[in-house]
């Protein structure tokens, strides 16, 4: 009898577990892939409904607001939490809209991969945002499993170095009316945070960046262990001068040496130091962490900047073959061959572009002959003129 009871208890526990966590198996892998494709398609179709309807509001809110146990079961906090949640989600569409707006400015937004986090027992979807003007960023979507359905619970933003819920929690703690909180430590921290934010915003509005930087330096407490603190320092330091900017990045790299998101900052840092090997090392570390081979394109740009023309050609060619719809790799290679006066290679590339039926010969002639596109050597090269005249 005892054995049967134990067996039933184990089975019951398994059922409960399955309801709250997604096991890592091929069925869930396929479901997550489809979910990611639908999310990606929704952004390219410029609609926010899929994002909003598949966001786990309850799971996200629990990460942001104080629980009743943390506030001595205060009913005032309970009401405040409810109105804070309503207010936040009323304007929550702004987040996916911001992604769509960035895509309208030539940013791409694509799935890189998915993975299963064993410690969380949750799936993740990694998206890449990229443009030649704004650079590289990643959004790591954490998925919750609710009633046998995957929902977005949170997302880690590489450029800020923290989850969206962590950023919002800081705003939430500063918004709580001080008379609602009995814990004197929370009250003191909250007052200090409010004073900092008010002063910091005023200094930025006045473009008094050095004073804002000094204000950050004088902060005390747990905030100095949070990545947002170092991110803010980097942002404001970039407005002062390169020395401040590099020192701020150096602090971040020393504080979080193994965090993949810091490698985004590390790339700029090593470029400014004119250290090609370290720049490529940072890109390699980021590529290893994200498993994103598109970083080869960024490597190509860096190789060209550091006059490693062979490395640049290799990288652009790789992207052209692996990402045939990404036109900038082909354009970059055209410019690189023009710069190096490798006109025969450029003719081969032009023919390949025509053979793919993405361009007509006249399209490419018009592009190269347009003086605004600033081809230096190709328009006057005899081999190009001969190619242009050939029907």
Outline of the structure:
By secondary structure, the chain is an alpha+beta fold. It has helices spanning about 1-20, 25-45, 50-55, 55-65, 75-90, 95-105, 165-175, 185-205, 210-215, 225-235, 240-255, 260-270, 275-290, 295-305, 310-320, 325-340, 345-355, 360-370, 380-390; strands at about 110-115, 120-130, 135-145, 150-155, 160-165. The termini are far apart.
Written overview of the protein:
With 391 residues, this protein is α+β, with helices and mostly antiparallel strands. 62% of the residues lie in helices and 11% in strands. It contains 19 helices and 5 strands. It has a 5-stranded antiparallel sheet. A hairpin with a 4-residue loop joins β4 (149-157) and β5 (162-163). α11 (242-255) packs across α12 (262-272). The longest helix is centred in the middle third of the chain and has 22 residues, at 184-205. It is globular. The termini are far apart.
Which SSEs are present, and which pair or pack?
Layout: H1 2-20, H2 26-44, H3 49-53, H4 57-64, H5 75-90, H6 94-104, E1 108-117, E2 122-131, E3 135-146, E4 149-157, E5 162-163, H7 164-175, H8 184-205, H9 209-217, H10 227-237, H11 242-255, H12 262-272, H13 276-290, H14 295-305, H15 309-322, H16 327-340, H17 343-355, H18 361-369, H19 382-389
Antiparallel strand pairs: 1-2, 2-3, 3-4, 4-5
């Amino acid at each position: 009898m005892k054995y049967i009871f134990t067996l039933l208890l184990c089975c019951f526990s398994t059922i409960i577990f399955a309801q709250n966590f997604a096991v890592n198996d091929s069925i869930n892998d396929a479901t997550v892939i489809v979910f990611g494709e639908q999310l990606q398609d929704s952004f390219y179709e410029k609609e926010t409904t899929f994002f909003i309807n598949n966001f786990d509001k309850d799971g996200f809110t629990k990460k942001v607001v104080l629980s009743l146990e943390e506030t001595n079961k205060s009913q005032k906090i309970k009401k405040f939490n409810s109105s804070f949640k309503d207010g936040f989600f009323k304007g929550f569409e702004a987040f996916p809209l911001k992604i769509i707006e960035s895509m309208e400015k030539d940013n791409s937004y694509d799935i890189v991969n998915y993975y299963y986090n064993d410690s969380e027992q949750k799936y993740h979807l990694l998206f890449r945002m990229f443009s030649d003007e704004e650079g590289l960023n990643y959004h790591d979507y954490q998925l919750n499993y609710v009633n046998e359905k995957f929902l977005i619970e949170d997302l880690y933003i590489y450029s800020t170095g923290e989850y969206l819920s962590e950023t919002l929690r800081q705003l939430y703690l500063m918004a709580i009316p001080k008379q609602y909180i009995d814990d004197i430590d929370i009250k003191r921290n909250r007052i200090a945070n409010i004073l900092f934010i008010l002063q910091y915003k005023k200094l930025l509005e006045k473009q008094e960046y050095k004073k804002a930087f000094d204000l950050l330096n004088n902060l005390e407490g747990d905030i100095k262990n949070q990545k947002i603190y170092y991110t803010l320092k980097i942002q404001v330091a970039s407005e002062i001068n390169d020395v401040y900017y590099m020192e701020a990045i150096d602090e971040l790299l020393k504080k979080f040496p193994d965090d993949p998101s810091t490698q985004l900052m590390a790339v700029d840092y090593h470029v400014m130091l004119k250290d090609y090997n370290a720049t490529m090392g940072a890109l390699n570390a980021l590529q290893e962490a994200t498993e994103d081979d598109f970083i080869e394109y960024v490597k190509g740009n860096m190789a060209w900047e550091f006059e490693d023309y062979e490395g640049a050609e290799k990288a652009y060619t790789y992207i052209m073959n692996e990402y045939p719809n990404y036109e900038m790799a082909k354009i970059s290679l055209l410019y690189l061959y023009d710069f190096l006066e490798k006109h025969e290679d450029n003719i081969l590339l032009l023919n390949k572009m025509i053979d793919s039926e993405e361009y007509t010969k006249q399209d490419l002639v018009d592009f190269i002959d347009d003086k605004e596109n600033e081809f230096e050597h190709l328009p006057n090269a005899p081999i190009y003129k001969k190619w242009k005249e050939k029907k």
